[in-house]
Write a structure and sequence with these properties.
The protein is of the alpha/beta class. It folds into 2 domains: about 150 residues, Rossmann fold (3-Layer(aba) Sandwich); about 270 residues, L-fucose Isomerase, Chain A, domain 3, CATH 3.20.14. It is built from 14 helices and 19 strands. A 6-stranded antiparallel beta barrel has the order 11-12-17-16-15-18. Strands 2-1-3-4-5 form a 5-stranded parallel β-sheet, with helices on both faces. Helix 4 links the parallel strand 3 and strand 4. Helix 6 crosses helix 14 and helix 10 packs across helix 11. It starts with a helix and ends with a strand. This is L-fucose isomerase C-terminal domain-containing protein. Keywords: Carbohydrate metabolism, Isomerase. InterPro entries: Fuc/Ara_isomerase_C, Fucose_isomerase_N/cen_sf.
């Protein structure tokens, strides 16, 4: 699966106007232009045309109800009655993007202000743009909102598996299934770990040996024997069967300590297929990886915060379960046994540089908490036997550490390449009061 292709906001597009008002005649063109603009930005569009009376609003709402859209976008071309949007939303209660077009005599912005007043009273999610229909900063703002609406629905439909249990002594990674479903969206699917391991043992050598040959061919060096590598491939193939059987969007395995190294390569390979496999039985972390995978279209890092350095950067890493795509240099990728236990296979390499978004997701009383950090990953050496990621934040490191302690943030940080903080802020607002967003 290509997560970038699966993450395309599906948006209903219309233009709102009142027939008497100046500017109403531009409604058909505005509806078509907004639809074309959103398609050019990566949306799938359901075109509704101009809406100027309740009958058209109801017909548009019914069409959207059958189209399963993530959001509806309105081009406001003149002043318009608020009930045009409200009647549509009775049939399709999707988040609303209002794009008001400039015009001194049209009253478009005035109409949008009265509609947003009503929607806010109803608690209905809405984002507003006031600009000509064109590429640029306002389109970027609009797309952040639309991508957040798509993320919201994808998370609500997602199934996240857990095989085994979370690590003893890591209480903050424990999943609250009711609260997760209510505030974030995914349903948790318990997986039978002994059955998974039995199934791995039943897989024929031939496909596992072929998969191992492919993996070693993509690595620069291999320090483990073929028998160990083939065993890791059997685990990978068995996990893939579970993913397909249960329709999982992500999963986690209670690997620490006894399965350390045995499931790490499965994590590396599945990440490249758009399926995050989180470490240490941390369902919350797997969900965080899923969020970033969807938003960035790339594999993500599952990390611990390790060491602040004298230059103001911070090293994050885990044991070596990252996708090969996360390496700065392919010639650095080494297959080796896992640290501490000296068993299995891990992919070891320094992580590539670039802008990164880091999140931590944990349960809290009454819901969930999402912590958000944004920074710049810099090149680093192999300072830890895993996938070290060195990050520079805008804030002084001591300020970030104090914030983590003050907010009670957990220790697992999921990192994705790209700046998707705006999307996550919008998503948090869409998630409702049960989700608490914390950021510096």
């Amino acid at each position: 699966m290509n997560p970038a292709r699966s993450f395309i906001p599906r948006v209903g597009v219309a233009a709102l106007s009142s027939p008497l008002e100046i500017g109403a005649d531009r409604a058909p063109a505005a509806a078509a232009d907004l639809a074309a603009l959103l398609v050019s930005a990566g949306c799938e569009v359901v075109e509704l045309g101009p809406i100027g009376d309740p009958d058209h609003a109801v017909a548009a709402g019914r069409k959207l109800a059958e189209s399963h859209v993530d959001a509806v976008a309105f081009a406001a071309v003149s002043w318009y009655e608020d009930y045009l949007a409200l009647d549509l939303l009775e049939y399709c209660s999707a988040p609303v993007l209002l794009w008001s077009l400039p015009g001194m005599e049209t009253g478009a912005l005035c109409g949008s202000q009265q509609l947003t007043s009503y929607l806010k009273q109803l608690g209905h999610p809405v984002a507003c743009v006031f600009a000509p229909l064109a590429a640029g900063g306002e389109l970027d703002r609009a797309m952040a909102f639309l991508r957040a609406t798509a993320l919201k629905l994808q998370l609500r439909r997602a199934r996240v598996g857990i095989a085994g249990h979370r690590v003893a002594g890591m209480t903050e990674v424990a999943v609250s299934e009711f609260a997760l479903k209510n505030s974030v969206g995914p349903r948790v699917v318990p997986l039978d770990l002994p059955h998974l391991l039995d199934r791995a043992g039943q897989i024929d050598d031939a496909p596992a040996r072929a998969a191992w040959a492919d993996v070693t061919g993509r690595a620069a060096a291999c320090k483990v024997d073929d028998a160990t590598g083939i065993d890791s491939m059997k685990v990978y193939l068995a996990v893939r069967e579970l993913v397909e059987q249960h329709g999982l969007a992500a999963l986690t395995i209670g690997c620490y300590p006894h399965l350390m190294g045995r499931v790490c390569l499965a994590s590396s390979l599945l990440a490249g297929e758009g399926i995050p496999l989180g470490c240490e039985g941390d369902v919350n972390g797997a969900v965080g990886q899923l969020m970033l995978t969807r938003l960035t279209g790339e594999p993500t890092h599952n990390t611990d915060w390790l060491e602040p350095l004298d230059d103001g950067t911070v090293v994050f890493t885990h044991c070596g379960s990252g996708s090969f795509q996360l390496a700065e240099r392919a010639e650095d990728i080494t297959l080796d046994s896992v640290r501490l236990m000296g068993q299995g296979v891990c992919a070891l390499f320094p992580a590539r540089p670039g802008p990164v978004t880091l999140i931590n997701l944990i349960p809290r009383e009454g819901g969930y908490q999402l912590a958000l950090l944004e920074g710049q990953a810099l090149s680093t050496e192999m300072v830890f036997p895993g996938n070290p990621l060195r990050v520079q934040f805008r804030q002084p490191t001591v300020q970030v550490i104090d914030w983590i302690h003050d907010e009670g943030i957990g220790h697992h940080w999921m990192a994705g390449y790209g700046c998707v903080g705006d999307e996550l802020r919008w998503w948090a607002s869409l998630a409702g009061d049960a989700l608490r967003l914390v950021e510096l």
